[in-house]
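Fold these two proteins, one after the other.
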Amino acid sequence: MKRNNTVSAVIPTRRRPQSVLRAVRSVLAQKYDDLEVVVVVDGFDNATETALADVADKRLRVIVLPQSVGVSSARNLGVTAAWGDWIAFLDDEDEWLPEKTTLQMEIAHNSAYQYPIVSSQLIARTSRYELVWPRTLPFKPLSEYLLARKSWSYGEGMLSTSTLLFPKNLYYQVPFQAGLECHQDLDWMIRVIEHAGVGIEFVPKPLAVWHQVEQGKSISAIADWKSSFKWLESVREMITDRAYAGFITTRVVPQAASQGAWREIPFLFKRMFTHGAPTAHDIMLFLGMWCVPHGIRRLVRQEGK
């Protein structure tokens, strides 16, 4: 299958003018020359339009949507508008390191897969620490790699959206699902890996920076456990029993605990056994997520062990 070598970086954004400017500049600073940047502004956002207008580079194209359609639909529109036969996603709060595109395109061209999805490690950065994630290389089944873990800390297995590069024609066959409330990236990975000819290629070195926003509340405190559980049920037939139990333990339970949904403990615990296959470690994590204060869990995550 003949493809051109142009890489189109698609960046959906909304009301983050300085962050998206940093993201755009990191793409334009790539050592790989044959690329473009497609920024999709998700709804009216004068500050972002003004910030991007100062970038004097013909490789940048800005698409402003008249109203917000959500991050998944914004990505889909960006891919449709892209000129390149290779797509790379970048979230507006993240940035690429200069050699990312060069290294990933070399691997993509040498891949035995018809539709290679190339990912890499990244640097998870806050004002207090930096960690290199994921700590574990991808393995099969991918649902267990992404949804279950064997340690207490975050960052064990992940394929960050901001590290992905893949053929455009694959995305036409398996686009992001519009309208999902959460876990859009996980949803896409779980669905696309089932497509014939798809395989994961991985660069075991950091090629992107994930700027984690430190707020008074954690992500798990903000996210709705019911939305996460609803998403989990929607992909149940595509994941393993171990992945199902692991996701309840590491994603659903922390959100429910942060929201004080104590009455849901018996339901989630039972569900983990009746619809999943938890390990002894999953059970310990389940209990720990309810009993160990968030501040202590955060310290464990920072250790990255």
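Now the second one:
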Amino acid sequence: MKQTLWTKNFTLVTLASALGAIGGIAGGFALSFLVFDETGSTLASALILAIELIPYLLLPVMIAPLMDRLPRKTVLVAGDVCNGVIYACMGLYLLKFEFSYSGYLAVSLLLACLGSVDELAFQSIYPSLIPEGMEQKGYAVSTMLYPVLKVIMMPLAAILLDTLGVAMLLLTQGALSLLAALVESRIRVTQTGVAEKSRYSLGAWWRDIKEAAAYLRHERGLRSIYEYMAVTNGVAQGYAPILIAFFRTAPGMTATMYSLFSVAEFLGRSIGSALQYRVEIPKKKRFPFTFLVYQVYEVMDMCLLWLPYPLMLVNRGICGFLGSNSAIVRNAAVQRYIPEHLRARINAFDNMLLTLGGAIFALAIGALGEVLDYRLCVTLCGAIAMLACWVLIWGRRKAIRPVYAPDEEA
């Protein structure tokens, strides 16, 4: 019988992801406008984002050892149920009462805590739901799903916001989260490492943390991949406000022209994901392929703001294409490489490093934008990421190759 990606488990997790994404995009769009409409302050909106960042930095590492001992499906289902109930309660509240900014701050913190745990549970269970040998196709689907739904849902959410209002959109999001939980409950997966019945203690938690730390200490290749991703993702997040400032101040540039960057990147990402779904990259070629992609990507960043606008759009389309390709190959390789009983803890470390990198580079590049030309800032960002690629990826290639091709010699 021919092997297929679309088993019952994979179909269910993809459907649940789609339901959650549809609700999250519509609800997030509505809430972003609600906060600004009610407060009239961009600082108030920024404070919400800052508060939501805290759990993603701290909570995954704290909860990951316990998650490696619990059935991840249960955590995933419970998280969506809690999300559904909270969003539904928010919708009902707004139907009866006035908006409360302090109350929304508290709820945002709670939702961010749930979101960080839910994301970790999904990252840890998803590889187990992909048939062996189909990892590249599986991650191609997950990489393509959110951008496609975002392009569909953003204009629809704007229409629904005007016709139904924020409260009804939040009620809809709550219903979709509960429906996603129902779909996830039908997944059948066996997880190793959950049979231990002894009482969990602080000492056991610390032993679990040390076990994961010892694993990472000996996995230089895995660490190098994580460190490079923290740099390149942090740089990309850091220069995002620089791009906005450039399009606001440069002659002939507008906010609308900047918004088309997302369309170009979406098209590139969609084509890249579709290609990865159809074309299997041999294991021995995955490392040189991703290294080449990283090089081209950083060069594209370095020259972005020096190009005529039409070529800027082409640049972003190519980056979207390359970004989806490298992400799919990397995620498929890394998640299969990590032992299942350590997956939540290792993913938590990765998430923490990405969040920390984003925060550090955002502050550093924001300060740099106060004293340097915006184009020079972005070029310098690309150069920093390029240097990190040569040091962390090429310089440690012997340790990294086994991650991408575990059956090949390093």
